[in-house]
Amino acid sequence: QVQLVESGGGLVQAGDSLRLSCVVSGRALSSYTMGWFRQAPGKEREFVAAISWSGTRYANSVKGRFTISRDNAKNTVYLQMNSLKAEDTAVYYCAADQTRYRLWVEYHQEEKYDYWGQGTQVTVSS
Prior knowledge:
The protein is mainly β. The chain has strands at 3-7, 10-13, 18-25, 33-39, 46-52, 55-58, 66-71, 76-81, 90-97, 115-116, 120-125. Strand 4 and strand 5 form a beta hairpin.
């Protein structure tokens, strides 16, 4: 059974950095496209970033501040978040998509992902 476990969230001040981690167990990380999504209070879950065999993709709101990366040897995907803003406050989820070939626009769609972690809270105080 595939499991995703996020960690690294916390309470930080605006301008600070955090690195989220997501460990995948049950199957090799290299089998998946990995995505990060987030959900702020009272809002729908939204796409943040994705990494596939062909590259990376970011939401406009985080482009230039966040970096997604993966270490297949450690079965871990990361989200480095710099220059955090109060509006980045949310529960962050990692997700795995086992379909190898997709249009990049599809990676923005949470229904395309097969497995999800439980989420980690990120709170940015202004």
